[in-house]
């Protein structure tokens, strides 16, 4: 989708991301890096239609003369529509020469996460004046083993129905005011084995997939 936002506000976020100072090896740091502002220069310059028309004249002459004008540009990926369910997929492999290697280090993640620093200032389904977009953790998928073999297990929170989430899914609106994690009991599921676990056990897991539900 091509947007013609004011250049002064095009790279603004719902909450000040520069105040984050995210801890390395955390999900906040991952999101911060993924949504960072990039400068496109040299071979990554952007083809500018306005500059090309200014240099070559009307559009019908551009193809025949093949004089395209490329310019330096800025690029940033931000969230323009906050989803009811947030799924975060962590890259758990890296290249080691010609081989792929499993990344085993622990990535910290919270029970409640605020996406506002990673949302565009004009995020479509966030009420005007709201500077928080909160999500509560309800599921984690963990992988143990190597790139060649391993085992998947899951942590799932058993909780009451979230009526605010239903409103958001069905009507695209949320009247939620909670800022605390949704209350419930966590369970660890491995094949046919299911057992209750503490939230500290969940937060210490080596997450591969994270599932959050919208609070605010």
TrEMBL record:
Residues 1-215 form the USP domain. Keywords: Hydrolase. InterPro entries: Papain-like_cys_pep_sf, Peptidase_C19, Peptidase_C19_UCH, USP, USP_CS. GO terms for cellular component: cytosol; nucleus. One of its GO terms (molecular function) is cysteine-type deubiquitinase activity. The keyword Hydrolase applies. GO terms for biological process: protein deubiquitination. This is UBP16 hydrolase. It comes from Copsychus sechellarum.
